[in-house]
């Protein structure tokens, strides 16, 4: 263990104790954490592993989500599930395997996913005759190959055909929590893995207007979740044609800005029109007794949100978790001389823990004797626990506790009287402070440029860039090829100047408005 800062040594009964005074205690694993300024990508990878969020699996491109990481995902899942149900959606489950012919029915959809599909060709193994091990039984070849779902539009719309006959059967508002497989070549934990967890909503409607309203409504649900729970400020908007979901008429997005100046697409919602209804012949009799195709949406967020959470808030000391999503909101660590003193602290802390839990706060009292207090401090700091309470022998005598907030690392000592309400308010203050810090960073890194030379110079520094675009995919492709920047969206909210027509920075052709560019994950 390495101690950085200063400390006071107290000696009693031939034992030495350390009184920590605004210091940072660094356990071995924290000491080895790469600094963001040195290598942001390596810092991220180090942090995911060292904070016990996830690790690489034996299967290339896949990950093992460890209990602490899964606890954060569970909180995300629980909150989002409640938000979906509050807007009238219900959960269902659809098969993992999709007949290959289904993907062929919507041409744009299959083109968008063809290179990422994992294919099941056989249904049985057998022992090799030479005893070398298990082999695929060539006699067990499937008549039709099955695709491990990259997304579920095709299998769901083949099912909806059986559910929908009349306008009285609409709308269908279904969501499923599932895993999907996309055969990514270059992977990174949470941000891009071959298999990942997500939710996917799939809705069916009688009118275009109703479906478009649904797609935008769910985008705003995602935006509210990102900002109120994740404390991640996002820009909402519509994707350009090049960046749309395969098979959609419009794709709506929420875009966050990470601390390295790159954008991260945090969630998308798609207006699918009647494309999938026509592909699977899903028709209904409307109120005028006429036959029409159903209108559709789909929308989803994934474990990529874990990456957004880490990269938006965390620092060189480890994770910084917003209290609304932290699995452990408060940790209490005792510092004691002997077993008798520990029993006294245990008795005192027991009532505080009970009151905190009555207030709906998740709290852990770590009185285990297998790790020193300094190691515990560093470990919980690394894992981003929002509030740490410490009680030592003198605190016990004075009826006080030391409080440290993870977002600023500030410490103070307060009386135990009313400390539970104080901590509850402190957690909300931390939540708001984390969001405001991220918002200030995002707003300070939005730039307007008018020339392509300015654009090329600024994109190297990172951030969001608002620039005029002539609306053609050719210009968009050229910018992407030459600068690795993409149009993140056409923002819903923009100042008057950004919505004023201008001139494309590349071609000089007329431009209807400024659009948002960035390099992205």
TrEMBL record:
Localization, per the record, is:
Cytoplasm
The EC code for this enzyme is: 6.1.1.15
The protein's enzyme class: ligase
Give the family from UniProt. Belongs to the class-II aminoacyl-tRNA synthetase family. ProS type 3 subfamily.
Q: Which reaction does it catalyse?
A: tRNA(Pro) + L-proline + ATP = L-prolyl-tRNA(Pro) + AMP + diphosphate
Note what the entry says on domains: Consists of three domains: the N-terminal catalytic domain, the anticodon-binding domain and the C-terminal extension.
What the protein does? Catalyzes the attachment of proline to tRNA(Pro) in a two-step reaction: proline is first activated by ATP to form Pro-AMP and then transferred to the acceptor end of tRNA(Pro).
GO cellular component annotations, sorted alphabetically?
aminoacyl-tRNA synthetase multienzyme complex; cytoplasm
Which keywords does this chain's UniProt record carry?
Aminoacyl-tRNA synthetase, ATP-binding, Cytoplasm, Ligase, Nucleotide-binding, Protein biosynthesis
Q: Which domain of life is it from?
A: Bacteria
Q: What's this protein's name?
A: Proline--tRNA ligase
Provide the Aminoacyl-transfer RNA synthetases class-II family profile domain boundaries: 29-322
Q: Which GO terms describe its biological process?
A: prolyl-tRNA aminoacylation
Q: Which gene encodes it?
A: proS
Quote one Gene Ontology molecular function term. Answer: proline-tRNA ligase activity
């Amino acid at each position: 263990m390495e101690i950085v800062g200063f400390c006071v040594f107290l000696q009693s009964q031939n034992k030495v104790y350390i009184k920590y005074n605004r210091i940072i205690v660094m356990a071995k694993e924290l000491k080895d954490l790469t600094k963001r300024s040195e290598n942001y990508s390596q810092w991220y990878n180090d942090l995911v592993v060292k904070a016990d969020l996830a690790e690489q699996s034996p299967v290339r491109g896949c990950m093992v989500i460890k209990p602490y990481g899964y606890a954060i995902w569970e909180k995300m899942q629980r909150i989002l599930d409640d938000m979906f149900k509050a807007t009238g959606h219900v959960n269902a489950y659809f098969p993992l395997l999709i007949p290959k012919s289904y993907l062929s029915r919507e041409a744009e959809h299959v083109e968008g996913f063809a290179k990422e599909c994992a294919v099941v060709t056989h249904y049985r193994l057998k022992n090799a005759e030479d005893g070398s091990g298990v082999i695929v039984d060539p006699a067990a070849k499937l008549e039709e190959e099955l695709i491990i779902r990259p997304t579920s539009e095709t299998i769901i719309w083949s099912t909806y055909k059986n559910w929908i006959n009349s306008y009285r059967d609409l709308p269908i508002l279904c969501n499923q929590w599932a895993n999907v497989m996309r055969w990514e070549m270059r992977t990174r934990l949470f941000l891009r893995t071959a298999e990942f967890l997500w939710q996917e909503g799939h809705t069916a409607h009688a009118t275009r207007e109703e479906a478009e309203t649904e797609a935008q409504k769910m985008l705003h649900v995602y935006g509210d979740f990102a900002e109120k729970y994740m404390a991640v400020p996002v820009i909402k908007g519509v994707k350009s044609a090049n960046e749309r979901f395969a098979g959609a008429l419009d794709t709506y997005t929420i875009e966050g800005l990470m601390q390295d100046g790159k954008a991260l697409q945090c969630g998308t919602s798609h207006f699918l029109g009647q494309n999938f209804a026509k592909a699977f012949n899903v028709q209904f009799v409307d109120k005028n007794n006429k036959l029409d195709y159903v209108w559709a949406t789909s929308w989803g967020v994934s474990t990529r949100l874990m990456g957004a959470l880490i990269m938006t808030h965390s620092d060189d000391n480890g994770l910084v978790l917003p209290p609304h999503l932290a699995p452990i909101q408060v940790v209490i660590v005792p510092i004691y001389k002997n077993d008798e003193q520990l029993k006294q602290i245990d008795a005192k802390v027991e009532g505080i823990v009970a009151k905190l839990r009555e207030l709906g706060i998740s709290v852990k009292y770590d009185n285990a004797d297998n790790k020193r207090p300094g190691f515990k401090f560093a470990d919980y700091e690394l894992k981003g626990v929002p509030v740490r309470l410490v009680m030592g022998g003198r605190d016990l005598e004075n009826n006080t506790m030391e409080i440290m907030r993870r977002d600023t690392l500030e410490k103070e000592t307060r009386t135990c009287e009313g400390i539970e309400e104080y901590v509850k308010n402190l957690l909300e203050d931390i939540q708001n402070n984390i969001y405001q810090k991220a918002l200030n960073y995002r707003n300070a890194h939005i730039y307007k440029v008018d020339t392509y030379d300015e654009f090329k110079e600024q994109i190297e520094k990172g951030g969001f860039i608002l620039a005029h675009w002539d609306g053609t995919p050719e210009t968009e492709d050229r910018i992407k090829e030459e600068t690795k920047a993409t149009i993140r969206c056409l923002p819903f909210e923009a100042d008057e100047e950004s919505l004023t027509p201008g001139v494309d920075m590349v071609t000089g052709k007329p431009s209807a408005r400024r659009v948002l560019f960035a390099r992205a994950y």
